[in-house]
Amino acid sequence: MDQSLPNFGKVAVLMGGLSSEREVSLMSGRGVLEALRSRGVDAHAFDPAQRDLGELKAEGFARCFIALHGRFGEDGTVQGALELLGIPYTGSGVMASSMAIDKVMTKRVLLSEGLPTPNYVLLRREAYSDADIAAIPDTLGLPLIVKPAREGSSLGLTKVTARAGMAEAIALAAGLDADILCEQFISGDEVTCPVLGTGAEAKALPVIRIVAPDGNYDYQNKYFTDTTQYLVPCGLPEGEEAAIQQLVLQAFRTLNCRGWARADVMIDRLTRKPYLLEINTSPGMTGHSLVPMSARAAGISYEDLCLGVLRSASLDHQKPRGAAT
C-alpha cells in the first residue's frame, strides 16, 4: 500500500449513529480514529446520533471516514446527505449502499447476473398467514435461516431446525424489520473475503474461514468472545480460495460497490459450491473484525488499511480519488 500521506484536510470519523449496531460502530470508530491520528491525520470523532450532519460543512470537514454500521449509516442515507453537502466519504455510493444493506435486493441483483446465492422466501410483516409460514420448510427444507432483511451482525437471526420454531423466529425478525428473509441453510464452510479498491482496480484480500462454537457465529461470538477461530490462510482445497475471491469481486462490481467491502460466503459441504450471502459496505474495524485480519495476512497494517480506505473517499458524481490499495 502506498505510504505517501496526502493532505486529507480535516477528517470526520462517523461513528455510533442510530442503528442497533451502534455499540459495534463506536468500537470500529475509535479504532479508526486512533489509527488515523497516529499517522498524522487531523481526524475527529463525529456521532450523527448526537450532532446534525450539517455541522460537517459548517466546521470545515474535508472528507468523512464512515465507521457507521447498519441503518442510517450503511444504507445510503448518510451517503446521500454527504453527496448534498459535497463532502467525499469512504465506501460505496448511495445506490450501492442502499442495495447491499437489503439482503433481498442483493439476492435479486446477484441472481439476475447468474451469481449463486441460497434460495429464499420473503415475508412482509403482518402480511402473511399461518399457511404461508407452514409452507416455508417445504420450499427451503430444514434447517433454514430466518433473519431481518436489513440488519447486520447477525441481529435477529435464527437457525430454525424444526417447524415448531418458525413462528418464534419470524416474530423475532419482524421485530427488527418489516421484511423477513427466510433462507435455505447451506451446511459447510463459512468464509468471508474483503475487497479493497474500485472497479477494475479492486482486489480481493485473503479469504478467512470462520469456525464458531457449535457453528453458531452470532452477535456474541462475533464481537465479545475469543472462542471463535479465524483461519487465514483459510486452508481450503487448492483452487477454492481463488474461485471465491473471483466470485466476491464479481458481486462487488455487480452491485457497483467502491472503496472497500466484505462479502460473506457459504461453501456447500458436499458439492463445494460457494453461495454468496451478503455484502457489507461498511465493514467492522473492531479488535475482532475480519477486514483488518485479512489485510494483516496480506501485509497491510491496520493503520495503512485505514489510510488506504480514507484515500479512496469520493462522491458519486466525481471520479474516485484512488483505490484503497
TrEMBL record:
Q: In which pathway does it act?
A: Cell wall biogenesis; peptidoglycan biosynthesis
Q: What is its main location?
A: cytoplasm
Gene3D superfamilies, alphabetically? 3.40.50.20, ATP-grasp fold, A domain, ATP-grasp fold, B domain
The GO terms describing molecular function are: D-alanine-D-alanine ligase activity
> Known catalysed reaction(s)?
2 D-alanine + ATP = D-alanyl-D-alanine + ADP + phosphate + H(+)
Would I find Nucleotide-binding among this entry's keywords? yes
Pfam families associated with the record: Dala_Dala_lig_C, Dala_Dala_lig_N
Q: Which PROSITE patterns match?
A: ATP_GRASP, DALA_DALA_LIGASE_1, DALA_DALA_LIGASE_2
Q: What is its EC number?
A: 6.3.2.4
Q: Where in the cell is it found?
A: Cytoplasm
Which of the seven top EC classes does this enzyme belong to?
A: ligase
Q: Do the record's keywords include ATP-binding? A: yes
Q: Which cofactor does it need?
A: Mn(2+); Mg(2+)
Q: Where is the ATP-grasp domain?
A: 107-311
Q: Which UniProt keywords apply?
A: ATP-binding, Cell shape, Cell wall biogenesis/degradation, Cytoplasm, Ligase, Nucleotide-binding, Peptidoglycan synthesis
Family membership, please give it: Belongs to the D-alanine--D-alanine ligase family.
**Function, please?**
Cell wall formation.
Protein known as: D-alanine--D-alanine ligase
Q: Which gene encodes it?
A: ddl
